[in-house]
Amino acid sequence: MNIQQSQIDIIAKIVAERLKSQDEVALSKGISSKSISTEGISKETVSSEGIFEDMDTAIEAAYQAQRTLFEKSLEFRKKITNAIKAELMLHVEELAMLAVKESGMGNVKDKIIKNTVAIEKTPSVEDLMSGVFTGDDGLTLLEYSPFGVIGAIAPSTNPSETVICNSIGMIAAGNAVVFCPHPGSYKTSNLAIKYINKAIKSVGGPANLVVTMLKPSMAAVETMMHHPLINMLCATGGPSVVKAVLESGKKAIGAGAGNPPVLVDETADIEKAARDIINGCSFDNNLPCIAEKEAIVVDEICDYLIFNMKQNGAYELTDKVLIQKLETLVFKSEGVLNREFVGKDAKYILDKIDISVGDEIKAIIMEADKDHPFVVEELMMPILPIVRVKDASEGIDLACKLEHGLRHTAMCHSKNIDVLTEMAHRIQTTIFVKNGPSYAGIGVGGEGFTTFTIAGPTGEGLTSAKSFTRRRRCVLVGGFNIK
């Protein structure tokens, strides 16, 4: 299903109605926030659902599963990924609820949307399009071949979404995968892995194609990263984890942090830009690395943009004392975030500085200087600083500076094709969204496939099945040329 903005609104409305009463949730899914085990996984599932107490054993099991998969057809891989999608669609709400309960970050309705697009819009074997050269000297095939066993590190911000998305892509490519989830949300990741293994088993696939540890540890991560049976590493997280996999000596895909700017010039549809920016920066409480982190606005239309942002769920702070109080609250020290507020609701954050608002408030906005900590740091909270500039040219200069060369994501609202072209050319981000909310860049209301591993540091970009393959050339000399 191609999820458009209208469908997002419908999903959000349905979720809001269903979450009004825990009894309704229990009836619809047989669960409630009270009945969900915070452990996520029972002892009975250990080793039988891809979940192991020992990392070496888990890797060996994945290795044996991959050897079996390697002898199967592409059609069979497709059958497995279809089964994963069908099974996980039954559990999107359960996984979303558990993720919020376990991590204390984000919100259920947006995590349901994220899980849904991870299931519906992650490509399978259709991504593995072969190439061919023919000529006087014969025929050459260009094929995609699996790495074998991939070691993957999943973040706390997308604990089930990343597991689902990576599992589909990696299995489609012919690999097995060993996950090391983040300690702050491993129960959610492990529960997703349990359901993935259930789906694989249901269609006769090999056991333990997707494995993990019962409980995460640094020792397990070290074992995985340096194990001889692990041929590739894929890390979704901050700079330190990406640095670690790059220094492992193995083939590595790294999806790091970003600080995405959004530029609005005087030609933009201001009402739509305001709505899109607030929806984007508040999506899952600003946890996605693609989300708008700072707005750069041409002075001529800045006041009108702020007015429309406030009409769409933004609360504006104008008192410098309160802005300073908010800064002191969300930073432990210079450049060091207070993790207590990462992924929290705007209402929750405002309450801590003695401002009471209703549930309609989705984001906190304020004007700030271009060197303010809110502007230069990635907050991952629904706090959006606004910086005025005299024109689009100055705005592009500032956007490139604030993005820090991470080449992750940027947005621009403009009807001037020259401005859109110039910013896209100069900022060189993996994702560049024009006249839409940030999440359109991962297929939520925008065209294209979904991924939750956006590999800017290592250059793969939006990863899919072919990202997890070796490129191979098969040459037949002097044959099959019928020109």
Descriptive terms for the model:
483 residues, alpha/beta, 7-stranded parallel sheet, 6-stranded parallel sheet, 17 helices, globular
Helix content: 40-55%
Low-confidence stretches: 14-46
Indicate the proportion of strand residues: 15-25%
What would you call the structural class? alpha/beta
Count of DSSP strands: 20
Strand order, largest beta sheet: 11-14-15-10-9-16-17
Taking all Cα atoms into account, the compactness measure Rg is 23 Å
Summed up:
The protein is of the alpha/beta class.
Description:
With 483 residues, this protein is of the alpha/beta class. It has 17 helices and 20 strands. The protein has a seven-stranded parallel β-sheet with strand order 11-14-15-10-9-16-17, with helices on both faces. It has a six-stranded parallel β-sheet with strand order 1-6-5-4-7-8, sandwiched between helices. Helix 5 packs across helix 6. The protein is globular, with a radius of gyration of 23 Å. About 7% of the residues have low confidence.
Secondary-structure map with pairings?
Layout: H1 5-18, H2 22-29, E1 51-52, H3 55-70, H4 74-89, H5 92-103, H6 108-120, E2 131-135, E3 138-146, E4 149-153, H7 161-172, E5 176-180, H8 186-202, E6 210-213, H9 218-226, E7 232-236, H10 239-246, E8 251-255, E9 261-264, H11 270-282, E10 294-298, H12 299-311, E11 314-316, H13 320-330, E12 331-333, E13 336-337, H14 346-351, E14 363-367, H15 373-376, E15 383-389, H16 392-402, E16 409-413, H17 417-427, E17 431-434, E18 454-455, E19 461-462, E20 469-477
